[in-house]
C-alpha cells in the first residue's frame, strides 16, 4: 500500500494502539517523582541516590531518542513498537517486584529504553498517515497524549501512595502495558516507509556523550543541593558540549548521518525549533514554581496541589484537538501569537503572587495560562515539520524530541537558579532590615525568633518565585517576537510528487 492510499484512509485502529502505548509510557514517567521519598525510606538510601530513578530515566531517553531516526528508518513501525512495548513491560514488572534498589533502578532503565522510541515513532506515523492539510487535527490529538498524561500523573501518584504504596504505581501501569502489547501484536500494521540504512557506531557513542552529558549537567545544576559551581554540573556540561560539536561536525560530513542536521536549512523548521526551546524554558516556570509555592509556602499536600493544577491540565487537554482543527484552518502564527499573549499576561500576574493569594485566584490563573499554552506547542512544532520532505521526518521528530528533553533540563536548572539566587539575596536583605528595626533592649524568646526566621524564609522564597516568574515573562515575550516571523508552509512540491511513489511494506496480522 502506498502513502497516497494510506493518507486517503488512515489506519485509525493502529494509531489508537500507538496512542495508548505512548500515553502509558508518559504517564509512568510522571508518576515516580512524588514516590521518591517513600522509596528512599523503604530502601534506606539518600536523596541523591534515589534521584537516579528520575535522572537515569531521563538520561536513557536522552541517549536513545537521537538514535530513533535510525531505528524508524531501518525497522518497520510494527516490530519497533512491539520491541519497545516489550521492554517497557519487562521494566515495569522488574520495578514492581524489585526486592532492592538496584533491581528497581534496572527496571526503570529498561522502561526508559522502551519508552524512548514511542513518541518519535508515533509522531512519524502521524506525519505519514495524514496529508498536510489534516495534520493539525491529527497532531492536536497527539498533543492530548503529551499533555494529559503528565497532568494527571502527580495527582494519581499522590493518591496511590497515600492509599497504598509506591509499588502501586507500577501495578497500575503493568496491565495497561501488557494490554497494549497484545493489541499491537494482533492489530498493528506497517505504515512508515523503510530504508536500508546503517548505524554509525561512533556517531552513537558521540551522541550518547553529548546529550547524556548535557542532560546530566543541567539536571545537576537544577538540583539546589548541587548547583552550578559543582564539578558534578560543569564537568558533564563541558564534556557534553565538546561531544555535541564533534557529533554535529561528523553528521554534516556523512552521506547518511545518524541524525540529519541539514533539516535546519528549512527556515520554518529552524524557527519552530527556536520557539519551542524558548517556550519550554518559560513553561517550566509554571511546572516547577507553582508546586513550590503551593506546597512550601501555602502548606498544601502534594495530592491537593495536584488537584489544584488539574483544571489547567484538563483545559489544555480539551483545547488540544480544537487547536489542531484551528491550525488546519488558520495556520500556526495566529494561534501562537494569541496563545503567547495569554501566556505573557498570566505569567506576569504570577509574578505578583503574595502569601495571601486566594486558591481560587491561583486555580483560575494557572488554568488560563494552560489555555494559552495549548495554542502554542503543537501548532509551532507541526508547522515546522510540515516544511520537511517526508524522508526527513524521522530526523525532524528525533531532533524535536531531543530538544524537548534538553530544553526541559535547561528550563529546570535556569528557573531553580534564578529563584534560589533571588531568595538568598532577599533573605539577607530582610534579615538585615529586621535586625535594624529590632529593639536591642528586648530579648526575643526562642519561639518568637524561630517564628521571625520562618516568616523571613517564606517571604524570601516568595520573592525568589515571583522574580523567576517575571524572568519567565520576558522569555515568553522573546517567543512572541519569534512567532511573528512564522509562515504557513507545505513540503517541497517535488518531494510531495515523489512521496506518492514510495511503497511501504504492509504486514497484515490475523
UniProtKB/TrEMBL annotation:
Mind telling me which residue stretches traverse the membrane in this protein?
12-32, 52-72, 79-98, 110-129, 141-162, 168-186, 198-219, 231-249, 269-294, 330-350, 362-381, 468-486
Extract the InterPro entries matched here: EmrB-like, MFS, MFS_dom, MFS_trans_sf
Acyltransferase as a keyword of this entry, yes or no, is: no
SUPFAM superfamilies documented for this protein? MFS general substrate transporter (SSF103473)
**Which membrane topology term applies here?**
Multi-pass membrane protein
- Domain Major facilitator superfamily (MFS) profile span(s) in chain numbering: 14-491
The UniProt entry, under Gene3D superfamilies, shows: MFS general substrate transporter like domains, Multidrug resistance protein D
Q: Is Transmembrane helix one of the keywords? A: yes
Pfam families annotated for this entry? MFS_1
Protein's cellular compartments: Cell membrane
Q: Which PANTHER family match?
A: MAJOR FACILITATOR SUPERFAMILY MULTIDRUG TRANSPORTER MFSC
Q: Hey, which family's this protein in?
A: Belongs to the major facilitator superfamily. EmrB family.
Q: What is this protein called?
A: MFS transporter
Q: Which UniProt keywords apply?
A: Cell membrane, Membrane, Transmembrane, Transmembrane helix, Transport
Amino acid at each position: 500500500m502506498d502513502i497516497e492510499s494510506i493518507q486517503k484512509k488512515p489506519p485509525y485502529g493502529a494509531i489508537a494502539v500507538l496512542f495508548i502505548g505512548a500515553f502509558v509510557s508518559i504517564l509512568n514517567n510522571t508518576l515516580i517523582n512524588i514516590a521518591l521519598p517513600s522509596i528512599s525510606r523503604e530502601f534506606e538510601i539518600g536523596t541523591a541516590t534515589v534521584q537516579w530513578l528520575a535522572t537515569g530515566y531521563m538520561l536513557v531517553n536522552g541517549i536513545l531518542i537521537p538514535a530513533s531516526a535510525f531505528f524508524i528508518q531501518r525497522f518497520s513501525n510494527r516490530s519497533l513498537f512491539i520491541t519497545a512495548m516489550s521492554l517497557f513491560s519487562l521494566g515495569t514488572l522488574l520495578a514492581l517486584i524489585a526486592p532492592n534498589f538496584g533491581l528497581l533502578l534496572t527496571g526503570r532503565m529498561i522502561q526508559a529504553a522502551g519508552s524512548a522510541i514511542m513518541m518519535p515513532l508515533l509522531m512519524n506515523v502521524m506525519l505519514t498517515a495524514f496529508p498536510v492539510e489534516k495534520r493539525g487535527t491529527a497532531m492536536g490529538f497527539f498533543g492530548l497524549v503529551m499533555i494529559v498524561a503528565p497532568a494527571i500523573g502527580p495527582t494519581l501518584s499522590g493518591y496511590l501512595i497515600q492509599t497504598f504504596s509506591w509499588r502501586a504505581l507500577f501495578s497500575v501501569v503493568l496491565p495497561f502495558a501488557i494490554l497494549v502489547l497484545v493489541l499491537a501484536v494482533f492489530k498493528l500494521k506497517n505504515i512508515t516507509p523503510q530504508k536500508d540504512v546503517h548505524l554509525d557506531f561512533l556517531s552513537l557513542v558521540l551522541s550518547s556523550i553529548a546529550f547524556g552529558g548535557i542532560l546530566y549537567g543541567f539536571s545537576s545544576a537544577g538540583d539546589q543541593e548541587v548547583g552550578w559551581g559543582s564539578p558534578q554540573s560543569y564537568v558533564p556540561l563541558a564534556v557534553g558540549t565538546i561531544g555535541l560539536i564533534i557529533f554535529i561536525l561528523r553528521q554534516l560530513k556523512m552521506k547518511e548521518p545518524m541524525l540529519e542536521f541539514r533539516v535546519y536549512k528549512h527556515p520554518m523548521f529552524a524557527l519552530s525549533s527556536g520557539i519551542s526551546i524558548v517556550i519550554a524554558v518559560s513553561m517550566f516556570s509554571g511546572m516547577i514554581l507553582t508546586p513550590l509555592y503551593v506546597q512550601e509556602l501555602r502548606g498544601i499536600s502534594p495530592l491537593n496541589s495536584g488537584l489544584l493544577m488539574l483544571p489547567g491540565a484538563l483545559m489544555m487537554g480539551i483545547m488540544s484537538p480544537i487547536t489542531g482543527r484551528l491550525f488546519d484552518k488558520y495556520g500556526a502564527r495566529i494561534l501562537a501569537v494569541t496563545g503567547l499573549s495569554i501566556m505573557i499576561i498570566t505569567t506576569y500576574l504570577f509574578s505578583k503572587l503574595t502569601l495571601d493569594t486566594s486558591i481560587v485566584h491561583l486555580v483560575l490563573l494557572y488554568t488560563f495560562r494552560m489555555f494559552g499554552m495549548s495554542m502554542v506547542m503543537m501548532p509551532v512544532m507541526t508547522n515546522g515539520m510540515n516544511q520537511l520532505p517526508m524522508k526527513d521526518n524521522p530526523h525532524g521528530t528525533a531532533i524535536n524530541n531531543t530538544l524537548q528533553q534538553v530544553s526541559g533540563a535547561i528550563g529546570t536548572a535556569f528557573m531553580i537558579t534564578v529563584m534560589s539566587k533571588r531568595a538568598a539575596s532577599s533573605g539577607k536583605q530582610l534579615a538585615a532590615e529586621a535586625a535594624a528595626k529590632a529593639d536591642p533592649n528586648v530579648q526575643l524568646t526562642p519561639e518568637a525568633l524561630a517564628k521571625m526566621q520562618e516568616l523571613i524564609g517564606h517571604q524570601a522564597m516568595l520573592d525568589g518565585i515571583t522574580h523567576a516568574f517575571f524572568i519567565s515573562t520576558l522569555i515568553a515575550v522573546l517567543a512572541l517576537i519569534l512567532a511573528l516571523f512564522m509562515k504557513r508552509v507545505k513540503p517541497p512540491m517535488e518531494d510531495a510528487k515523489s512521496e506518492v511513489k514510495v511503497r511501504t511494506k504492509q504486514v497484515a496480522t490475523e
